[in-house]
Amino acid sequence: MKNLTITVEDSVLEWARIEAARRGTSVSRMVGDFMAEMQRREDAYERAYLAWRTDERGWDGGQPSSTQPAQRSVALRREGQA
């Protein structure tokens, strides 16, 4: 483990001390847990984003998306408007 020095407003430190006591932990542990949780969330977001970017399915119910846009007349016929 490494040490970390941070600078916060007096009111923030006061709140952190009270909150840590309420939780039965230390300010140091609370800050460390917060940072670890942020890391987990960021990692999960990154994994989800990469999975989405590499997903070969399109928005049409899981079918591979076409590289050619549909013509307006074809799209309207599908909707019963042409």
The percentage helix is: 55-70%
Beta-strand percent range = under 5%
Secondary-structure element sequence?
HHH
CATH architectural arrangement of the domain at 1-56: Orthogonal Bundle
CATH fold assignment of the domain at 1-56: Arc Repressor Mutant
Provide mean pLDDT, rounded: 83
Structure description:
The protein is mostly helical and 82 residues long. The protein has a domain at 1-56: Arc Repressor Mutant (Orthogonal Bundle), CATH 1.10.1220. 60% of the residues lie in helices and 0% in strands. The protein has 3 helices and no strands. The chain has helices at residues 10-23, 27-54, 72-78. The longest helix is centred in the middle third of the chain and has 28 residues, at 27-54. It is elongated, with a radius of gyration of 25 Å. The model has no long low-confidence stretch (mean pLDDT 83).
Describe the structure using short key phrases.
elongated; 82 residues; 60% helix; mainly alpha; Arc Repressor Mutant; single chain; 3 helices
Give the structure's gist in a few sentences.
With 82 residues, the protein is an all-alpha fold. The chain contains three helices and no strands. Residues 56-82 are annotated as: Disordered.
Q: Topology, please?
A:
Elements: H1 10-23, H2 27-54, H3 72-78
Region (Disordered): 56-82
Protein name: CopG family transcriptional regulator
InterPro entries: DUF6364 (IPR045944)
